[in-house]
Structures are given as structure tokens and as C-alpha cells.
Amino acid sequence: QYKTATLATGDFAGFHLTSTLTPTMKSHLTYVQIEENLEGTHSGVGQYGFGNDWAFIASAEYTPIKGLDVRPIYSVAVLEGTTNANTRFNRGGVTNTQTVFRPNDIEDRHTFGVDARYRAGNFFLDPTILWQLGTRMHQVVQNSAWGTKDPAGTTARPSLNAWLVDVRGGYRMGPLLLEAMGMYTTGNNARDNLNKNVNYYHALDTDSSYYAAGWSAIWGLGVDYYKALFQTGAGAAQGVNLTNNIGYNIYGRAQVGVRGTYSVTPALDLRGVVTPAWTAEEVDIDSYGTTGATPAAGPTAQPNLTGDGKVEGQSRYLGTEILGGFTWLFAPGLTFDYEIAYLFAGGALDRRIIKTGGPTRVEAEDAFITTARVRYAF
């Protein structure tokens, strides 16, 4: 694709074929071997092996006029049983209890869309629209406190229906480049039965690079390629890894950003970014309970037994990140990058935990990161 990490970006087995049909048209065919049953077993799954999971991506690149490239895209993915979390993060049930995928459970996922880019002098615009639909099979999980209306152990066949829209553009005025972006991906609300409908978007593999490349150091990967917010540990396992899963857990995501880059010299660029983020559907903060004194890193499988006793959303606002930094090419092949970023945490990141004396709401603390990197390219 023209834009990194909205559908498939990263390291996977397969092949890619590009054919130039005319001076203004190309075709692209990509086969992805996501997992292979001969690889062995998933950790903790025992006798259940990897499924023969694969995907096929087809696109046609067309240049109708000078400066405009349009690329319609179609992808089909067939997933057997438990699948790599980069391709399908595991959520399910009314209370978001993790779903059980058995070896013979099949998911057929179809993604339709268009990627485009437009260049006219100092102006550029890069829109991406993807629509995802299909069907999934999994075993129903019955929660003792809330439960679903579906008997435990039976087979659920939810339908998939999700959207991702990502538009970025900019204009250069001499040494100053001004850019803006907006993205939206659908989600499920707190009371949705995920045994019936799944409305949150899945990429095949983003290689942890969605919303990276200078747009963020906390929401996405910064210059150090280290960790974005919730990228590892329990948060990533619970599906709140924004760089891999794009959306926030089941709740989707909406984000805007503005970025200014000023070229002091051809070798020195200064940049600043402001980027607030929300969820598409309200997050049920009270369902994030844990029996310990420390709040979980992400939504847990526990039902809402601590707050007002209701499964419902309370907040959409995730927070606002402010970033500053520079890139300095100070010698041939040697680049010095520096970034400093601060996240003003929003209410959707709050937690409720169980302490002695009863449930307690814990407000999310602000986050801060600073990074320096020297890179040698040869």
C-alpha cells in the first residue's frame, strides 16, 4: 500500500508479484502464509497446533491523471483455530472474556477498499478507506456473573463488519511543512455480544508501525523503535496495542493530529506534533477490575462487579500527546534523532480496582518519554 501498516506490513512468509500492464496501470498480487500447522503448537494450547492460516491480497494501481494514483484493494484471509495476535487479537463475550478458538474453527475475512495519493505542487493528500466483513467460528464462553444468552461450549458464528478510514495531507511553504491527519475505525460498545457481531477492525500485520514515522512517540513507535503505549505485556495481550491492533480493544479509535516540520538547513529538521485520541465507542472503565492492589495494564476478563454494577461505557477520551524533536544529518551516513513527548491521559484510561474496603477508581497518570538515537547507514 501507499500508506504504511493499514492492512499488511512486516515480516511474513509468502510472495509478491508486480506486473506492469500499461504505462498507467500495474497489478499487485501477494500471498501471505500467516501460520503453518507443521510449525508445532501455540504456547499454552497443548495439542492444538497452529492452523494453516493464509491470506491473499490483490490490488490494481492506476494513474488516471498526472499526480493521482488510485489503488483498489481486495484481501481474503482464512484462519483456522487460534491465530497469531498480530492478525486477530482475542476478545469475545458480553464482558469481553477471551474467546476460545478450537482447531476446526474457521474465520473467513474479506477486506475491500481503496488506497490513493495525490500530488499537486507543494500539496499532497493520502486517503485510505477499508471495509472488512466476513464470518467467524469460536466456542462460546459463559461468564458466571453476566454470561451471554448463548449456552457455554456451543459454537458461535459472529459476523464481521468494520471500517477503517485514514486521511493524511500536507502543504510545504519553503522550509516549513504543515501536515494534518485524521483516522477513524469502528468498534463495539460495552454491551455488545461478540458472539453475534464483531465491529472492530483487524489488520493482517502492521509490524508495530501504525501511526509511527514521526507522528507519535507514545501512541505509536518513536525514533527508538522500542515500545509504544501498551505495546507489550498484559496491555498488548488484552488488545489495547494501538500500533498492532489500530483500534483500542473492542472500542475502536478516532484520532486527529497536526505536525509542523521546519528545515533549518538541508541537514537539520525541527518538528512538533499535537495528537489527541478517542475511542469510537465508550469504554466501560468499571469492568477493568482486578483482585490485586494494582490496576491491570489493560481490560481484564472480569465482569463489572465493582462500579455501578452495569456493563456500560463511561468515557471515550484516551488523551492528548504533544511531541517535539529534531533530525540532524551531521556527517555522511550519520543521523542524530531526538524526541521528547508527553501524554495528558484521558478518562478512558482510568481503572477501577478492588482494594481493602471496596472498589476504588484509579485515575490514569500522564506519560512521558524522551529518546536520543544515533544511526549509521552505509
Secondary structure: number of strands: 18
Estimated radius of gyration:
22 Å
Shape: globular
- For the termini, the CA-CA separation is 27 Å
Provide a descriptive summary of the structure in words.
- By secondary structure, the protein is mostly beta strands.
- It has two helices and 18 strands.
- The protein has helices at residues 233-237, 242-245; strands spanning 13-22, 25-35, 53-65, 68-80, 106-120, 123-136, 138-139, 155-156, 159-173, 176-185, 197-198, 253-265, 268-283, 315-331, 334-345, 351-355, 358-362, 367-376.
- The strands form three sheets. Strands 1, 2, 3, 4, 5, 6, 9, 10, 11, 12, 13, 14, 15 and 18 form a 14-stranded mixed β-sheet that branches.
- The longest helix has 5 residues, at 233-237.
- The model is unreliable at 43-47 and 288-307 (pLDDT under 50).
The gist of it:
By secondary structure, the protein is mostly beta strands. The protein is built from two helices and 18 strands.
List the helices and strands and how they pair.
Blueprint lengths: L12 E10 L2 E11 L17 E13 L2 E13 L25 E15 L2 E14 L1 E2 L15 E2 L2 E15 L2 E10 L11 E2 L34 H5 L4 H4 L7 E13 L2 E16 L31 E17 L2 E12 L5 E5 L2 E5 L4 E10 L2
Parallel strand pairs: 9-11
Antiparallel strand pairs: 1-2, 2-3, 3-4, 4-5, 5-6, 6-9, 7-8, 9-10, 10-12, 12-13, 13-14, 14-15, 15-18, 16-17
